[in-house]
């Protein structure tokens, strides 16, 4: 009963998080702190140890994302930065941008190393019966969360893959509320990508 309550509450917070992310609102990071705190318990009880671990990372990444969106303003032509605050000007919001080409190789390497490393840990040291799927979604989430914190529009592609895989994985684990949430995520993530593209053109 306690697990079901936490799962339902986490689903509600997740929907709020999804809506705020869709709108590129900085307040998504508040939900981004609450939601992993809930799912740390849900995933541990369900035996999804990699997802349990990734939520600790989510807590840290949410704090990083909050500070970066607040003060990590990029210097662009015609745009103020935090350095302009000393002159009395107010810096603009952190803009949505494309992922720099130089980031793709490091991100791919982080994904591969995380995927293989997490899978090995799950196989060798836990009783997980879905080590490869669990490690795949965890590794890709590590990459996607960092891209979200940097406000890269391509972060949506990572979440589309994660959400689709998680939807099936959580049905297998009898986490039906969470599965429904991730099924909705996979649909909204597609719309989210186009929403962010539109915001890029008008920001």
TrEMBL record:
**Principal location listed in the UniProt entry:** membrane
Q: How does it sit in the membrane?
A: Multi-pass membrane protein
Q: Where in the cell is it found?
A: Cell membrane
Alphabetically sorted, this entry's keywords are:
Cell membrane, Membrane, Transmembrane, Transmembrane helix, Transport
List the molecular function annotations (GO) for this entry.
Answer: nicotinamide riboside transmembrane transporter activity
Q: Name one GO cellular component term.
A: plasma membrane
Name the PANTHER family for this protein: NICOTINAMIDE RIBOSIDE TRANSPORTER PNUC
Q: What is this protein called?
A: Nicotinamide riboside transporter PnuC
Query: Could you tell me which species this protein originates from?
Result: Bacteroides ovatus
């Amino acid at each position: 009963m306690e697990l079901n309550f936490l799962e339902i509450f986490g689903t509600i917070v997740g929907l709020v998080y999804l809506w705020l992310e869709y709108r590129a609102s900085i307040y998504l990071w508040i939900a981004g702190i609450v939601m992993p705190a809930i799912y740390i318990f849900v995933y541990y009880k369900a035996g999804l140890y990699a997802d349990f671990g990734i939520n600790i990372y989510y807590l840290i990444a949410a704090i990083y994302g909050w500070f970066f969106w607040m003060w990590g303003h990029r210097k662009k032509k015609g745009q103020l930065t935090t350095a302009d605050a000393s002159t009395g000007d107010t810096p603009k919001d952190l803009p949505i941008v494309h992922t720099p080409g130089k980031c793709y190789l490091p991100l791919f390497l982080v994904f591969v190393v995380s995927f293989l490393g997490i899978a090995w840990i799950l196989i060798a040291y836990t009783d997980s019966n879905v080590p490869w799927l669990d490690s795949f979604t965890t590794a890709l989430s590590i990459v996607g969360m960092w891209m979200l914190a940097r406000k890269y529009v391509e972060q949506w592609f990572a979440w589309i893959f994660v959400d689709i895989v998680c939807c099936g994985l959580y049905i297998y684990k009898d986490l039906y509320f969470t599965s429904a949430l991730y099924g909705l995520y996979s649909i909204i993530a597609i719309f989210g990508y186009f929403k962010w593209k539109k915001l890029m053109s008008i920001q």
